[in-house]
Amino acid sequence: MELNTPNKNHLISTSLSQFEDSPVFNYINNLSPIELVKSVHSDQTFNSLAFSSPPSVFASPKLVSQRDTRSFITRRQLSDPLKPRPSQIRDDNNTSEGVSEAVELSNLSAEQLGCLASSSSPKDVTAEPLNEHLELAIELPEPLKCDSTSPDKSIVPLDAIRRDTAPEEVDKSNERHCLYESEKNLRKICRIDQSEDEAGGDWVTLISNVADALNFESSIIEEHSEEHKLMVDPGTISFISNVLQIPQDSTNDLENGESIVCDDYSEQKMGEPGSQSIVLGKKKEADEIPAILSGSLLNKLVVNDAAAEVDVKGKKRESSCKNRIRRLVFEMAGAHKKESVCQENSTSPISGQSDCEVGHTAKYSTPRISMLSRRGIGLHLNAFATTSSDNKVVKTETSSTKQEMSLVPCDSEDQVTEDAPQILTVVRDEVGISSPKMKRHKIEHAGAACKRCNCKRSKCLKLYCECFAAGLYCIEPCSCQDCFNKPAHEETVLETRKQIESRNPLAFAPKVIRSTDFVSEFGDETNKTPASARHKRGCNCKKSSCLKKYCECFQGGVGCSPNCRCEGCKNTFGTKNGLDENELEGGESEVLEKKASDVTLCDRIESGEEEGADLPIPSETARSSIQLPMTFGGRLSRSLPAFGASSQMCPSQKHGKDIFRQPKFETHLQAIPEEETPEILTSSCPPANGVKSASPNGKRVSPPHQGFGSSAIWRCSRKLILRSVPPFPSLNSPRQQ
DNA sequence: GAGTTTGAAACT
DNA sequence: CAGTTTCAAACTC
Question: Taking every annotated instance into account, which residue ranges of this chain make up the domain CRC (predicted)?
């Protein structure tokens, strides 16, 4: 909002230059050839952007910034196709169909985002995105190899698909692509970690520099909403969010990841300059730079990773990879099982390790990621759920596995946050933090984010188990006993999960819903409820005054809401009565400190400093803070200065209950009842209301809801946030199930 | 690291 | 739905 494009550009340019200079950058360059291509793309994109100017219609300052962000993404998208291979498909499409294409692309959101349901007659445009993805997959087959014993499979099919582009095959290709994407994302994460280790401070610096660029992300989503293109971005975002949620150390990495992801998506999506021109506004340049950087970095990182994996093919690595994957998978596993999206590839999930580890992983992981993304970014992502590169894939799966998706709550970031960190942690372990020391250090930082349980009697099959509750398999770091929450007991896990879900459909849904982003984003300056996030169910604290982690609201970094039955609520993020922290009686130095740390983090993030890792934030607190930034982070940061600045996570709380009842975005959060049926969410979210409902301004008024009605609300919120979130359902619906 | 506190989850 | 028990995280020492 406040950020000016010029500034951004300046920052970006600066960061860029720094990037290039940095050792890390050099290293990355050396690693991957891809980068060059990307840069080229970016250049192209840049050009395309140059002529495009945002329509006056969208003129609100906020929108502009957002658009700019989006432009960033868009740019990337365009470039992507070129990078990997300007080859055949590319040639066809790339040529300049310009605006018309862009328009089509927007319509094609489904394709772009996820795995397009196979359309009877894929247009050239449609084919392009897929092809592009395929190309990517082809280019980086190694990663897949690493995990899967039979990497060829995945790869080959893609090629075939590409060539043939038969509608039927397209689906498969999409699936594969999805898998690839998911894996790619994972790898990215890994690489980020590695690079971080290698680069050390340099990397961090780079990241910090790029932080600003990342901030644009938030805006991206909204913008995209207008054009269905959002889907990709959301995915990216979701992915990013996951990454971002990583512990302090990785905060930087995360950010990079975000930017990177966005870039990828953008490239994929936007395929055409023309489209960009339309969408993008002023910031083209600024966006572009970051995009390039991120893109290049990412690519390189990916390459490295891939190489590493390939090299390591050794069992050890493989196993580690598997574990990592599994973790990701678990959440979706159930759903997948129900409906195997990628049946071809999958052998039994469990057995799959050997066979198509990658495939499995990808399958599950992808869905999981998508889910996460949804949750995480919350509302934003819900509809999209894609990984950076998985946009398409995710989509496809989503659509195909509606039920599954439905099961998963789309709301909160909790999961995202939590999950992402986990993933990261796992990845780190596997990626190879060489020195135990480093490893330990990393883990510690990530610790908060990572889920590790210590269950002794629940066998990790109850919600008591954090891992299980998060839809994750327990892994090494866990100290659980008699753990059944492992791939080996998948059946049991799924069954148990089913039971729990039958009892409470939202049992595995994120507990905290964050809507702040939207509000701020939508730009109501008047509306200053930065942290509109709320705990779905509310807490029931009696002795902790909601000032300790015992309180789920506090733990989630959100204020208490009217839904809370807490006594003596002093939640620093906001009391259920809407009292401001300032109003709170002093005394909670501890809390205040924590809060302060959060604020600091937020501020930093906003300012682009972001070094969450360095911040002395309690693990959990850190997580929250990080999450928030992430959630809001890219997106909100700017729009939500209040968050950090105010030092109040949830200004909304100040408003008190009224806020919730108000038909504003914030309201959604609270309104969303736990009970929302996931299915409803899934189905409802998507289409119709979603984008449409959103007002041009992006502001949406949602009637006060309670209970599932909230689902509707939820949608509203999402829609509002996403603005133009493409109706996934419609796209997917045909095929799926 | 052991013990206590706390509140969610599970059970009745 | 309310009350109780179980559980594991959070916290304290």
Answer: 449-574
